[in-house]
Amino acid sequence: MRVTPLRLNSENTSRELFNTLKVSKEGTAILAPKSVYAAFQVDGLSAWEANIIKQDLLSLGSDAALERAALIKDIKTSIVIFGSISQLKKLAAKLKNQPFGLKEFSLQLSQVLENCFKEKLTFCARGKRLNFGQPVLCGIVNVTGDSFSGDGVLKGSFPQTVDAAIAKAGGMVKSGALILDVGAESSRPGAKPLKEKEEIARLVPVIKGLRKEFKNVLISVDTYKYAVAKAAADRGADIVNDITALQNAPRIVELVKEYQLGCILMHMQGVPQTMQRKPKYQCVTSELYDFFKARIEFCLKNGIEKSSLMVDPGIGFGKACKHNLEILKHIFQLKAFGCPVFLGLSRKSFIGKALEVPVNGRLAGTLGATVYAMLNGANVFRTHDVKETYEALKMAAEIKNYD
What we know:
- The chain is of the alpha/beta class.
- The chain has helices spanning 11-20, 25-35, 47-59, 85-95, 102-116, 158-174, 196-213, 226-234, 252-259, 284-301, 321-329, 349-355, 363-375, 386-400, and strands spanning 37-46, 63-66, 76-84, 122-125, 128-131, 136-142, 177-183, 218-222, 239-242, 262-266, 309-312, 342-344, 380-383.
- Helix 6 packs across helix 7 (196-213), helix 7 (196-213) runs parallel beside helix 8 (226-234) and helix 11 (321-329) crosses helix 12 (349-355).
């Protein structure tokens, strides 16, 4: 006899295991949701609502944690609920027709359960589709002369710049990149904004050249300016990667809708010129949640399909080292939105600070953080080092998905 620990993180994992044990199809369908456990923190509840949730969970064979004062006082409170997927789905069903704010809670819980344990995730941009069975790599093409990593392709003439960009992109695509992210304005801490005219002049020939050379690769334009985004879309860009999440130029949402573009919504506290001057958060993960909830709602209200959106927590954008580490530790929380999670970790300063290494010595740290993020729910990785990142993620995925 032996007793072996198991880690069942999804219903699919459970189904595969049960099949090896020759459990019946009917039994597997019933047991898989019971075998996966989850926990959620719920904020902004009244004491009445919190107590009803706790009692309903107890009746389902699970429980919830809440402060003692909420048992005897009418206060606003938070609660941690936990149980199997089956129990939590039953909880949502029981509360669907309840008074107070419990109907809203029921709807949110049902949606978050679906999003967090969704086994098929799709991203659509200009008629192209990405199906996330495996992590996706996004190669960085900086049409700049002042990138923090020193890898900009801006040359003395536009033809030279285009040739350099195509050569760089070709190596990335060959190494496994499915997206190319092209930017002409540096967003490193302290960087000054570029005039629209200059940004367009740098980007247009490069995007035009890349589109001609790589017809099936998704091309993303890294900009927060309407005129620049439109010029890029007119030359064949598929995605707008906006570090302001469409706050600087809300009209970009019209472009996304008209051209059926993809859109990456990034969180940033402040602006690049000042964002690293003592950034502060009461709770960085809670602020990210509220931010993305609002920005996704803005997009949906303006006619953008959720399948066209990605969320990026903006590592290094208005965050101290401790904030970046906290975000990565809890990166799985962003799965609650049902959108692919896009991450730019490559060579960032928090890695240099944690490991005490310069920019050119951050590859190992980048790969370590990237693999951790992938195993905890991140989907797309923006990187300077496509070949090394591809191999690290492929190895981790081989182990994770080994049957």
